[in-house]
Write a structure and sequence with these properties.
four-stranded antiparallel β-sheet; binds magnesium ion; 326 residues; binds adenosine-5'-triphosphate
């Protein structure tokens, strides 16, 4: 672990809530987030995502282990950590009655900016988060996506080195999610390190450079989205035959290429096979069907998805094993 290039470093962090269920919390949580990158913390409900964010943001004390954020120790240098981070929690801290600009100005003043600097910063953030048209709209009248963008803007009044975002787009419609994703990408382009938690695997796939999968308070897999997909997911080859009568012959042709059980949907005349070497399977299957003179209506490769990885890890991997993907 390198504390100079890592914006977040956690090792062996433990947290047991007083009166909480046995094992709930964090049980040896390790994380390393490179400066200027986006890390997605994924895991089922109760896995410990919010607990991890709260500890890293110094809102909650850890019981054991160590964590550093922006180079500072979260326990012994908590005040310094706070000066270098932004936090967007699940629920917004913005004032409902105030307009977007007023909210930004207020947070600027709370962060000791002069009136003039606060105004300049507010204008810059309104621009950056595409909120200029809503500058004079009270927060209570914003759409979900605009509101979440205002949350982000408010947390960036004094440009933090590291931004923690707990579930950036929960409850937003697809358009709102796209708006927030664009806002997060803008931040990253400007050099902010982002640690986000999400239940939406597509969100992690879209935004994160690396993903840590959390289960029962510890990281059970870590890597780039592609690493995780190729390690824990399956490539599928789908074929659709022209006629139902060809299904049996097609099964016999496909069997040698299949790395697992065939899935057959007779009604749609579709056969899906898991494959290991995508291209070899594709060319081999194409040739075999040509040789057998069986016409195909469709032939396609399907890449594994993060959903598949998530389901796999949350069903079959015991929590005391740590397959390292990095
Ligand atoms: N204040 C608390 N007191 C006792 N137990 C708690 C407290 N906060 C969280 N827990 C427990 O700790 C575990 C981890 O909770 P946490 O909120 O970190 O999970 P999460 O991964 O963020 O879940 P979600 O996806 O639902 O937001 C859960 O079992 C939860 O019930
Ligand atoms: Mg949570």
């Amino acid at each position: 672990m390198n504390s100079r290039t890592s914006a977040v470093l956690a090792s062996g962090v433990r947290k047991q809530y007083a009166g909480g269920a046995e094992g709930a919390g964090l049980n040896g949580f390790d994380l390393e987030v490179g400066a200027g990158t986006v890390c997605g913390l994924l895991g089922p409900n109760g896995a410990g995502k919010t607990t991890a964010i709260k500890i890293l943001a110094t809102l909650l004390a850890l019981d054991a282990g160590q964590a550093r954020v922006a180079g500072f120790n979260v326990v012994t240098e908590a005040a310094l950590v706070r000066q270098h981070i932004g936090l967007v929690g699940q629920y917004a801290a913005i004032d409902e009655i105030l307009t977007c600009r007023q909210n930004l100005m207020l947070f600027g003043r709370l962060n000791h900016l002069s009136g003039r600097n606060a105004r300049q910063r507010a204008d810059h953030l309104l621009e950056q988060f595409d909120l200029v048209a809503a500058a004079n709209t009270p927060a209570s009248k914003l759409s979900g996506g605009m509101r979440r963008r205002l949350d982000l803007a408010v947390s960036l009044i004094v440009s933090p080195q590291v931004l923690f975002v707990d579930e950036p787009t929960t409850g937003l419609d697809p358009a709102g999610r796209l708006e927030v994703w664009a806002a997060i990408r803008t931040l990253v382009r400007e050099g902010t390190t982002v640690l986000l938690t999400t239940q939406y695997l597509e969100e992690a796939d879209q935004l994160a450079d690396r993903i840590s999968m959390l289960k029962a308070g510890r990281v059970i897999a870590e890597g780039t989205p592609d690493d995780l997909k190729s390690t824990f997911g399956t490539n599928w080859l789908d074929i659709v035959v022209d006629g139902v009568a060809d299904i049996d012959a097609a099964k016999a042709i496909l069997q040698p290429f299949a790395a697992g059980e065939l899935h057959i949907d007779a009604e749609s005349r579709r056969i899906s096979i898991p494959v290991q070497d995508r291209i070899r399977a594709l060319t081999g299957v194409t040739t075999a069907f040509e040789d057998a003179q069986i016409a195909l209506e469709d032939l396609s490769l399907r890449r594994p998805t993060l959903d598949e990885v998530f389901l796999h890890l949350n069903s079959s991997v015991p929590t005391n094993r740590q397959p390292e993907v990095a």
